[in-house]
Amino acid sequence: MQQRFSTLLCTCVLALLFSGGLMAQQFRALLIVQTAGWQHESSFDAIPAMKQLADRHNFRLDLKQRAIPLNDGMLKNYDVVIMVNTTGDIFNDDEQAAFERFIQSGKGWVGVHAASDTEYDWKWYTGMVGHMFKIHPVVQTAMLEVQDGTFPGLETWPKRMLWTDEYYEYLDGSKQPGFNYLLTVDEDTYDVNAKWGDNVAKGHGDFHPMSWYHDYDGGRAFYTNLGHMPAVFAEPAFLHHLYGGIWWAAKGKK
Q1: 171: closest CA among 140, 136, 196?
Q2: Burial of 44 (C-beta count, 10 Å sphere; 0-12/13-18/19+)
Q3: Which CATH superfamily does the domain covering 28-251 fall into?
Q4: Among 26, 30, 90, 197, which residue has the fewest nearby CB atoms (within 10 Å)?
């Protein structure tokens, strides 16, 4: 009887351990969609799409609440911070310092579209992003070009893909040392012109970056310009591209 009980107990323990392994999530992500400027309509589509992405790829996703500030105690629970269509100055000095320490501890950051239209006066942040938003023409169709098809999330993309989105022109669109470029847009395939008062779009020429990644201050940073249109967050190719960046930023694998 005792032997049967011991066997049953071991079986139950193994079952619990096995089920716990199945339930364990591979990393933890904090999603930020907070704005202090333009509010993108696609932010409302991004939240459920990101939840589905987390369910599909078995990672924990928490949405940052505006009333809860970033601090060391909160951020220690996460492996990656994902900023989708954030705009303006959304963090105070204490939050900025906590976020710097988060990255310096070896963690990751993912920026989507207007994350490059955020925190212009925070030099550390603009260095992490690499290319900050200046202006954009109207939403239109153009040809995207894959610069590195070996990076996670781009292994199924063709070398060139027809895509409709809002293509940013940056304050500085030239190649940055230490940056690895994933996607560019062919300026010959769309109208780059725009004029907002004295702010005029001229394009970047033969090399117009759309997505990139790099190691930064002890951690990792990934950015994609794609993500302006709500329908993009239902596009499998985009979600695969985005998850590849999230996975790399969270785990450092590629």
Answers
A1: 136
A2: middle
A3: Class I glutamine amidotransferase (GATase) domain (3.40.50.880)
A4: 197
Q: Summarize pLDDT for 212-238 with one digit per residue, the tens.
A: 999 999 999 999 999 999 999 999 999
Using the structure block, give the residue that is written with the tokens 């911070």: 81
| 162 bridge partner residues | 143
How many Å from the N-terminal Cα to the C-terminal Cα in the chain? 52
Domain ranges in the chain are 28-251
Q: Is 73 exposed, middle or buried (0-12, 13-18, 19+ CB in 10 A)?
A: exposed
Q: Is the dihedral of CA 115, 161, 173, 135 positive or negative?
A: negative
Which of 60 and 4 is assigned the larger pLDDT? 60
Tell me the mean pLDDT in the region 199-210: 95
Dihedral sign of CA atoms 150, 151, 155, 158 in order: negative
How many CB atoms lie under 10 A from the CB of residue 189?
15
What are the structure tokens assigned to 44, written together? Answer: 């409302």
Kindly indicate the confidence band of residue 23, based on its pLDDT and cuts at 50, 70 and 90. low
Question: CA-CA distance, 211 to 92, in Å (whole number)?
Answer: 27
Q: Look at residue 185 and give its three-state secondary structure.
A: strand
- Tell me if 112 sits within 8 A of 224, measured CB to CB: yes
3-state DSSP assignment of residue 220: strand
Mean pLDDT, all residues of the chain: 90
Give 97-138 as a DSSP string: HHHHHHHHTT-EEEEEGGGGGB-TT-HHHHHHH-S-EEE---
